Structures are given as C-alpha cells and as structure tokens.
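Please check this one:

***
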Amino acid sequence: MICHGISLLFCLHVGTVASTAFAAVSSRLRGRRLPCVHRRAKPASLVEEAQQPVVKTRNFRPLKDKYGEKANIPRKPREHANPLAALHLSPIDLPEDWVSQVFANASQPVILDVGCAFGGWALQMAQKEPGVNFLGIELRGPPVEKALDRKDASGLTNLAYLKVNTLVDFDSILRDLSSDGCGVTYVTVQFPDPHFKKSHKKRRVVNRSFVGSCAVHLKEGAHVFLQSDILEVAEDMREHFRSAGPLFRDSRASVEDWMEGEANPFGVPTERERGRIENEEPIYRCVFERTSEPFRETWTEEEEDVMEFRLKRLKAKRETKGGEKAAARKEDNKWQTKQERTTESDLGNL
C-alpha cells in the first residue's frame, strides 16, 4: 500500500513537470514566451501572468539610419566629421554684407573661433566682452543649430555662428571680416579633430593654406591662439606657423616650451578644456603674433627648402617617438611571454 502511494505521488510529480515543460515549448513554437511559474502556483495566478502582454525591446538604429527625421528619433551629432566628403565641399553662399547682418555693430573687432562645436566658449566670451564681436564656425550642422538656439535665447548681438568648412571657406570668411573695416584681432583653434591616421592628416584644420590665409588677411599685431590636449597635434599646428618664417612670431622661443598655467589667456575654458583641467591632464598652448613682414605669394628656393626641412624634421621626430613606443611595447610583450613560459614550466615541474 505504501509503495502504491509513493508511485502515485511520483507519477503526479512527473505529470506536473511534463505539462509545464510542454506548455513552455509549445508557447515558444507559437512565438510566445510564458513566464517561468512555480509548479505549486495557484491556477488564477497562472492565468493572470499568462495573459500579460509580452514586452519586447527593439533596436531602432536601422529605422533611424533609413528614415532619419521621419522616424522621429533624436540623433546624437557625430563627434568628428570628414571635411573632404562631397557633401561638405560646396562653398558657403553668403551675401556681400553678411558681416553687418550678423553683428549689430560691425565696426567692433572680431575674434574668430575655428571649430566652435556647440559654441559655449564664444557665448561666454561674448557675455564677458560686449565690445568685441565673436564669430564661431563649425563644420557639423546640429551643433551649429544648437549654438544658434543658445545665442537667440541669450539675446546677444555681438555673437554669430556659421556652418563652414574651414578647408574650403576659411580664406573667404577671413577676407570678408578683414575688409569690412572691423578687423580680426584673434583667431583661435582649440582642441581640433586630431585625425590620427596618416591618410587623414590632410583633413586637419591647420595646414599651409590656413597659415597663408592668416598671413594675408591678419593685420600687424593680430594673434593666433592654438591649444590641444594631444601633443602631436599641438606640435603639428605650431610647426606650421613657425615654418612661415618671419610672418609670425612665437610667444615662446623654444619649441619645447608651452604656455604654463591652468587657464588660457582669455580666462574662459572650453568644455573639453574644463574636463582636462578637472582630470589634471596636460594641455599644450601657444600664441603667435602677426609681424609687420609683408606677405609674399612667391618664396625663394632657400626659404621653401627651410619650410620643407622644418616640416620633415617634425615628421621624423614624430616617427621616432612612434618607433620608440613600438619598440618598448615589443620588449614588454617579449618579457610578458617569457614570464608566462616560466610560469608554465614551474607548474609543469610541480
């Protein structure tokens, strides 16, 4: 009798488990997934939980890429953009009197911020210096739109932003600002896109054309302020201006000497600069002043050789540093492999 009762209980247990497993498998085959319920749960709770809708998560990235704004999904602006892409190579179309349209008093001196991103630095500077006009130029559209919204909310009349490809329109922008009587007193390039790859170096903002435009349109006494948290990028920008010979004067005599102090000369940090200061990371800054030397479109062969030599020397210096780092990594890998082999041999001898 006892054996009969035990066998009956065992059959009931097996039947309950089998029915639960069958229900789960059948629901999976029908595309539904029932919650895992304990076998002793009441029938009412079983029905209640089974009738609850199945919540599915979905990745909207394909819809966002396909439909864009039609999908009504906010897209985060890209941190970097390719200035040599076809959609960015069309020159900007501005009216002849655009300077007087964007500034209430176009006769005030101008500070041009190249690569202004969301325009926070220019906004704070415009509030701090009402007697100076500030123009921020940026390649990406969404940051410029947000910067314009912030400018409209502030009500500032000495602040403007433009969506500009510096590699295409920098010379014309600087020419219009200089010929309109106001004059550019400062050009700032703060934390530009590094473009680390060798094939991407041509995308960098500061090149020989950039330096040439500054030499042509900046008046004597105007300044160019450069800063970056990447030493290789800061050295590259600095060497381009130093290679211009007598046209620009570096505030530091030595190439290895950078501006000291946590704050930049303006006393207003950018968003990225503020983060680097909080993390106690180095920032490399330098200032160049436009001299009275007139710009010449043609250079002697000796001067061309000097500029080419300086750029080649900087390139060789960077490659040497890269080679030293690669050799150090190679030695570290050798040492690590040797340690692993020693550990394996020690374990094998146990």
Residues 86-294 form a domain with the Rossmann fold fold (CATH 3.40.50.150). Strands lie at 110-114, 133-138, 159-163, 184-190, 223-228, 248-250, 284-290. The first strand starts at residue 110 and ends at 114. The radius of gyration is 32 Å.
